[in-house]
Design brief:
With about 375 residues, the chain is α/β, with parallel strands linked by helices. It has a domain of about 240 residues: 3-Layer(aba) Sandwich (UDP-N-acetylmuramoyl-L-alanine:D-glutamate ligase). About 30% of the residues lie in helices and about 20% in strands. It has 11 helices and 14 strands. An 8-stranded mixed beta sheet has the order 4-1-9-10-11-12-13-14, sandwiched between helices. A 4-stranded mixed beta sheet has the order 3-2-7-8. The radius of gyration is 20 Å and the shape is globular. It starts with about 30 loop residues before the first strand and ends in a 21-residue tail after the last helix.
Length: about 375
């Protein structure tokens, strides 16, 4: 792993932000992290074979396939709900900002019991909660579709009014109805709120102008490796263009971990936390974001925040559904110690809420590394 073991601060405030110059959120300032984006019901199935084996190279322009799946799990999901769940798992009480249908009642009850504040959620009188349907093959590849449903009404939510009432320290603008994403981003700029741009799945449909507006001035930008390339292509920007417009760019790299980029500085790669069991990749990236934001709110460096995110992502990977894992300090400490060493595990846990005190980290196993 390249890097400095976490000694560098995580970055400047975004171009439009007003946060501290070292980029870390002051302790207590961001106890109320706002998470905007989709809430959905996930229909998750597993195909025991390989999608690639079913494709005929000379007939890719006429695809008609049906896969006999082994299992079907119906679970609560959606990027905003998944991230809020992860933050609550680490002791935060995030505000969930999303549009749902009347069928959200049970999902909402579970989120509230877990520690998520769902009071800002808008309930549609006519449309159901969004649906995400995904099949995963033996290689971990996924085929998915998404029906937005009530999410199309998210642009009716007034984030500015919510922010004035709750004075959040940080806002994540996640994949949502594109009009809502633009409205939330504009509200963050107008109020000087630090925000993270996390357009994810909406990059495929958004045009260049929309992408540029969603990203410009963000304190943090989250993408995966594919979305990184797609964003550059559709926005018509170079990597340097993006880094000149955001504070910190986090690119997740799957099993390899993530890369942290900032203008004028060499990139840092943070290794993933090894997974003993890879059960379901759905929502793993959302868990990473939750862990990262929790670390950021606790004043951790970007490297250490990414390590918190990597540990939470590994817990999510071992569970079926994106809102079923448990993140107790003992288990989190074990994962961090195995991956990064006991000293580093204690430093990461110190940036999380009180239950995750450094004393929660287990003794460092012989031969563990701290870098």
């Amino acid at each position: 792993m390249a890097g400095d073991g976490g000694e560098r601060r995580d970055g400047r405030a975004g171009r439009s932000g007003s946060g501290p110059q070292n980029g870390a959120v002051r302790r207590g300032e961001a106890r109320r992290i706002v998470v905007t984006g989709s809430v959905a019901t996930d229909h998750l199935s597993v195909f025991p074979g390989r999608f690639a084996d079913q494709l005929v190279p000379d007939h890719l322009d006429h695809i008609s396939l049906s896969f006999l799946v082994d299992t079907l799990e119906i679970r609560p999901g959606g990027v905003a709900a998944n991230i809020a769940y992860g933050l609550a798992s680490l002791g935060h009480r995030p505000l969930l900002v999303a549009a749902v249908g009347s069928d959200f009642q049970e999902h909402g009850r579970r989120l509230r019991a877990h520690g998520v504040d769902t009071s800002p959620v808008r309930v549609s009188s006519s449309l159901p909660t969004a649906r995400f349907t995904c099949t995963t093959d033996a290689d971990g590849n996924q085929l998915a579709s998404f029906y937005p449903g009530a999410m199309t009404e998210a642009s009716g939510i007034d984030l500015a009014a919510l922010a004035r009432a709750h004075r959040p320290g940080f806002v994540l603008v996640g994949a949502d109805d594109p009009r809502a994403m633009l409205r939330h981003t504009r509200a963050c700029r107008a109020l000087g709120l630090r925000f993270a741009a996390d357009p994810s799945q909406q990059l495929a449909l958004a045009d260049g102008a929309t992408i540029r507006e969603l990203v410009d001035g963000a304190d943090h930008l989250f993408t995966n490796e594919y979305e990184n390339a797609l964003l550059l292509a559709k926005a018509g920007w170079t990597r340097a263009d993006v880094l000149g417009r955001v504070g910190t760019w986090i690119t997740t790299l799957g099993a390899k971990g993530c890369r942290i980029d900032r203008e004028g500085e060499p990139g840092i790669e943070v290794a993933a936390v090894p997974a003993a069991t890879a059960t379901d990749p759905t929502g793993v990236g959302d868990a990473f974001r939750a862990g990262y934001l929790a670390g950021l709110a606790g004043g951790l460096t970007a490297v250490r925040a990414a390590r918190a995110g990597a540990a939470l992502a590994t817990l999510a990977l071992a569970s079926v559904g994106p809102q079923t894992y448990r993140a107790g300090p003992g288990r989190l400490g074990e994962l961090l110690t195995t991956a990064y060493g006991g000293q580093e595990a204690a430093a990461v846990l110190a940036g999380l809420p009180r239950a995750y005190a450094p004393s929660s980290a287990p003794p460092e196993p012989r031969g563990a590394r701290t870098g």
